[in-house]
Amino acid sequence: MTAFEANFDGLVGPTHHYGGHSFGNVASTGNAGQPANPRAAALQGLAKMKALADLGYRQGVLPPHERPAVEVLRSLGFTGSDAAVVAAAARQSPQLLAGVSSASAMWVANAATVSPSADTADGRVHFSAANLQNKFHRAIEHEQTGRTLKAIFGDESHFVHHPALAMHPAFGDEGAANHTRLAKRYDTAGVELFVYGQQHWGGNIAPQRYPARQTLEASQAIARRHGLASERTVFAQQNPAVIDAGVFHNDVIAVGNLDVLFCHETAFAERESVYAELDAKLGELRLIEVPTRAISVDDAVRSYLFNSQLLDAGNGRMRLVVPEECRQQPAVWAYLQSLLGQDGAIAEVLAYDLKQSMRNGGGPACLRLRVALTDAEAAVVHPGVWLTDALYAALTDWVSRHYRDRLSEADLADPHLLPEVRTALDELSRTLGLGALYPFQRSGGKSR
Ligand code: SUG
């Protein structure tokens, strides 16, 4: 049996904007109120997907969510036609309208935690939709995430879907952004590393300035649900000082794949014991630890060096897919050149322009959800979401026809936006062959 890692990237939605919705994510708050370019954002994401597909990686697409989320506004007491609901929200609470209009579902590393079948007790791939309860605009994602994942990974003999954990700070869960699966091979049992920001009950170290979005309790619950063996699971606390420096998810300071872990020396609260436990449970970890003297935490956050994709290049070596911003930080770029010169685990560095997403704190790793699949599992994935040349051409054409090239927060009140988005999403769900995926399609296909 052979297995491989597929990357499913979130397609940026048409309401992409800079709402300053994520306290603790310094790019999000720093760029609040700037005009965004949803068309460029979606095309940048697609270009990265296409480049990786062209290199031979299995690449899938996860569709955006329906935004503005009219159903959420209705649950908050707005009534009347859909247009009236949006208009009233725009008048009474522009901040709420911006929250329910966020295209944040593009960062699918936060959509779910995924455990490959080689790791789980029942030999199926397990998905747990993340509750994202720390941020209002993201806490409304999990239902659609669950629907989308079930539509794509529908075969119950291979795939299991768990709903989001309880919506309570004790179970704050941010999905795969705080989860790394290490293994010697994709088709044999691996070690699942869960990184949490804080222990809710009984923990005593916590960040002071910014929130810890993931709890130990949530990570333990996910591991239990997925049927992971304790001898192949590691729970590690993130260093609270780096959360306070803007590292709101572990994937902003560490990335791993197969037996390679690439991280900053300040990533974990107790680094030596984390490395030792991983090494013991995995049977030799290949660690690339970046010291502060080479790259400061601030430079790591600014460049998003660790929010990179570490991709198997064959022969035990890796490609590192970084955002273009790494080139602009001299210390980071120099470090990457020295790494390539060492003939070590990283053989190649590829940089992509993802500026639109980056300005909201979303780099290459945020935009993708990794799913390690066997050939038999891949064969039953909904075929319409694999990025072929034809799908890439159809999606770039679709974006060019339906997306605006400028969107500011004030534009979210524009009555034309909702019908525009629905027309686009209706066409997209047909292109991907996903049927009635969205609430507006399920309530009869027409606006109330
Ligand atoms: O949750 N930004 C996202 C970025 C998520 C990045 N994901 C990973 N690191 N895996 C967040 O903070 C900002 C939206 C705004 O402000 O408009 C936002 O939601």
What layout of secondary structure does this protein have?
Elements (H helix, E strand, L loop, with lengths): L2 E8 L15 H5 L7 H17 L4 E4 L7 H6 L6 H11 L1 H8 L10 E4 L9 E5 L6 H4 L2 H11 L6 E4 L16 E4 L8 E6 L19 H10 L7 E5 L2 H4 L10 E4 L2 E5 L6 H12 L3 E5 L6 H7 L5 E6 L2 E7 L1 H4 L1 H12 L4 E7 L2 H4 L9 E7 H5 L9 H14 L14 H15 L7 H4 L6
Parallel strand pairs: 1-2, 4-5, 7-8, 10-11, 13-14
Antiparallel strand pairs: 1-15, 3-4, 6-7, 9-10, 12-13
Helix pairs in contact: 2-16, 4-5, 16-17
The structure holds N~2~-(3-carboxypropanoyl)-L-arginine (SUG).
What does this structure look like?
By secondary structure, this protein is an alpha/beta fold. It has one domain (3-442): Succinylarginine dihydrolase (L-arginine/glycine Amidinotransferase, Chain A). Helices cover 34% and strands 18% of the residues. The chain has 18 helices and 15 strands. β10 (260-264), α10 and β11 form a beta-alpha-beta unit. α2 (38-54) packs antiparallel against α16 and α4 crosses α5. The protein is globular. N~2~-(3-carboxypropanoyl)-L-arginine is lined by residues 17-22, 25, 28, 102, 104, 107, 109-110, 138, 177, 248-249, 251-252, 360-362, 366.
- Tell me the domain tally: 1
Q: Number of DSSP helices?
A: 18
Q: Estimate percent helicity.
A: 25-40%
Structural class: alpha/beta
Low-confidence parts lasting 5 or more residues at pLDDT below 50? none
Radius of gyration: 21 Å
Note the beta-strand portion. Answer: 15-25%
* CATH-defined superfamily: Succinylarginine dihydrolase
Calculate the mean pLDDT score and round it. 97
Strand order of the largest sheet: 2-1-15
